[in-house]
Specification:
Immunoglobulin-like, four-stranded antiparallel beta sheet, 1 helix, mainly beta, three-stranded antiparallel beta sheet, elongated, single chain
């Protein structure tokens, strides 16, 4: 569901510095886990204005886009520029076990938290077993 590897990241950074090219959208680190009937995803977006965060869902794909601009002042000579800025993007493929109509998003202290309800048909349920004269009847 989530792909994290990027073996060419260091080469991309070197090429950006040498060729002075625009960086590709930065990857935002995430944590994802399930607790009871809710799936949680936490995106690290420090320093991003909440108005610059965009969430979209198209079929099973959830896309998060965020932007952190650089300095606004003209004639700024950057001495150290290690903090990523510009466009951040991340796509998650949502399985059919998640209810795409019940997603909540909250942004606090630089962390975007999504709460996605697990679809009702995907939640475990107990099946009652009854016996009627030696025959077993199973009812959901």
């Amino acid at each position: 569901m989530l792909v994290r590897t990027d073996p060419f990241r260091e080469l991309d950074l070197l090429a950006q510095q040498l060729l002075n090219t625009a960086p590709r959208p930065a990857m935002m680190p995430i944590d994802a886990y399930r607790k009871d009937d809710t799936f949680f995803v936490h995106f690290d977006l420090p320093g991003v204005d909440p108005d610059r965060i965009e969430l979209t869902i198209e079929q099973n794909t959830l896309t998060v886009r965020a932007e952190r601009p650089g300095p606004d002042e003209e004639n700024v000579e950057m001495l150290v520029a290690e903090r990523p800025r510009g466009l951040f993007a991340r796509q998650l493929l949502l399985s059919d076990t998640l209810d795409r109509d019940r997603i909540e998003a909250d942004y606090d202290a630089g962390v975007l938290t999504l709460r996605i309800a697990v679809a009702e048909q995907a939640t475990p349920r107990r099946v009652q077993v009854t016996s009627s004269g030696g025959k077993k009847t199973i009812t959901p």
